[in-house]
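Re: that backbone. Tokens:
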């Protein structure tokens, strides 16, 4: 695991944009396409906005990047809570990424059907390869959740399926999510964590005893890939560094 600490959220986003841009360029020197699983929520918005502007707009060959999602709220695409909608607005509509390179988790069909369809897409892409995604971008909630892997829920213990859908009572909605097994087969996983509200949780996730029922972010340990945490000073305050 490699830890990257920035002064504030803006500096973190700038550092991570540079890291991602260079990483995509390096990988595309060795293979035809780059597969990128995006995170939802508010934390990555400034990162996506940076990637959609110069210098990264022209440094990255967006025609060769294939986009996926780590999880999705089962709400219509035009709902402001829809993760894909946010990514289109801030990043995808500005980069000229071909439509056939964008693989959303559908919310216009039943959640379980959407999860099954997405899993088939992933198997078509990744079966027979040593790794799945080239890059998975993740966030971490104040409660230690990542993707839609929430503390104390059965989804935390999923060992086989790559994509699952379930009803989250606390939010009164269905969620569709990648699971730990498919994420841990990625070549590179990057967490973003910002703000003092995450400091104690981050310390427990990184330095504490392993307890994924309490801190599901601990589940993410790439089997044959890199793990990076990009955090700001406020989030890192409790860490021993």
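Recovered sequence:
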């Amino acid at each position: 695991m490699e830890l990257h600490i920035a002064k504030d959220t803006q500096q973190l986003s700038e550092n991570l944009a540079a890291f991602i841009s260079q990483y995509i360029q390096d990988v595309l020197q060795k293979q035809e396409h780059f597969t990128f699983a995006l995170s939802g929520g508010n934390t990555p918005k400034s990162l996506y906005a940076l990637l959609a502007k110069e210098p990264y707009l022209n440094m990255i060959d967006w025609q060769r990047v294939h986009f996926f999602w780590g999880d999705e709220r089962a709400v219509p695409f035009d709902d402001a809570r829809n993760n894909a909608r946010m990514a289109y607005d801030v990043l995808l509509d500005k980069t000229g990424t071909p439509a056939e390179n964008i693989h959303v988790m559908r919310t216009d069909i039943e959640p379980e059907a959407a999860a099954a369809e997405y899993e088939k897409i992933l198997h078509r892409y990744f079966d027979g390869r040593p790794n799945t995604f080239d890059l998975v971008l993740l966030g971490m909630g104040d409660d230690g959740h990542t993707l839609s892997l929430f503390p104390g829920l059965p989804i935390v213990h999923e060992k086989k399926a790559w994509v699952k859908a379930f009803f989250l009572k606390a939010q009164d909605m269905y969620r569709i999510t990648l699971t730990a097994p498919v994420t841990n087969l990625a070549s590179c996983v990057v967490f973003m964590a910002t703000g003092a509200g995450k400091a104690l949780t981050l310390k427990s996730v990184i330095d504490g005893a392993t307890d994924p029922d309490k801190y599901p972010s601990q589940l993410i340990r790439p089997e044959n890939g890199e793990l990076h945490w990009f955090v700001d000073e406020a989030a890192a305050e409790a860490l021993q560094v």
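The CA atoms of residues 40 and 83 lie 5 Å apart. Residues 2-235 form a domain with the Rossmann fold fold (CATH 3.40.50.1360).
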